[in-house]
Amino acid sequence: MDQTWLKTTLERFKNEQDPIRKFLKETKLFEEALANQEFEKTDLLIRKELGGILTSFKESFRKLEEGFVAKAQIQNIGKTNPATTLLDRIIMKVNSAGYGLNGLGTGVKATQEELENLLNHDFGMLTKAGELQKEILETLPTSFASNPEAAIESINKLFLNFETQFEARNSIFLKK
Question: Is 102 helix (H, G, I), strand (E, B) or coil?
Fold first, then answer.
């Protein structure tokens, strides 16, 4: 995916008008609530893709555990649990990420610039997830065979770094 995908998807959601949405946008009560929904829909698509990439790591860990069982390496069974638990937490954060205090009842409304920044941030996380995927999948089998504890520790550090980068999205909505 590249920036053109992001722009065309955003434009597609912006131009999407079913009769009910069109009517509600014309009423004063719902006009503000339905404003900028194209950003939220596009961001949701990006976060679903991000969650899918992260979920693929769980499958890799499961296959690694299967290998331990097949090779009767009892001492290594369960070593991936800390990384899997951390990964579950990150996936939950990605899938349920919010938009700060942005909402109907809060009195705070995100600007279009803030929403664009958020969208670009989450889109950039897709690239970082690809780099993370490449790094982990290339080094996991060999590093785990030689020193499982060190391998899981380095994977956890990569995941924690990714989590910190993803959580930086919250600072976008801080009003100065």
Answer: strand
Which residues, 6 or more positions from 87, have their beta carbon under 8 angstroms from its beta carbon? 54, 57, 58, 61, 159
Q: How far is CA 91 from CA 39, 47, 56, 66, in A?
A: 21, 9, 11, 23
In the structure encoding, which two tokens stand for residue 45, read together? 């698509």
Residue 36: inside a domain, yes or no? no
Q: pLDDT digits over 134-148, tens only?
A: 888 787 777 777 777
State the total domains in the chain. Answer: 1
Nearest alpha-carbon partner for 49 in 138, 125, 157: 125
Structure-block tokens of residue 10: 């955003």
| DSSP for residue 138 | H
CA angle 134, 43, 45 (to 5 degrees): 65
The model's pTM is: 0.73
Q: Give the integer Cα–Cα distance in Å for 143 and 70.
A: 19
Domain membership flag for residue 1: no
Give the pLDDT band of residue 36 (cuts 50, 70, 90).
Answer: low
Residue partners of 133: CB distance under 8 A and separation at least 6: 53, 56, 57
152, part of any domain:
yes
- Asked whether 66 and 80 are in contact (CB, 8 A), the reply is no
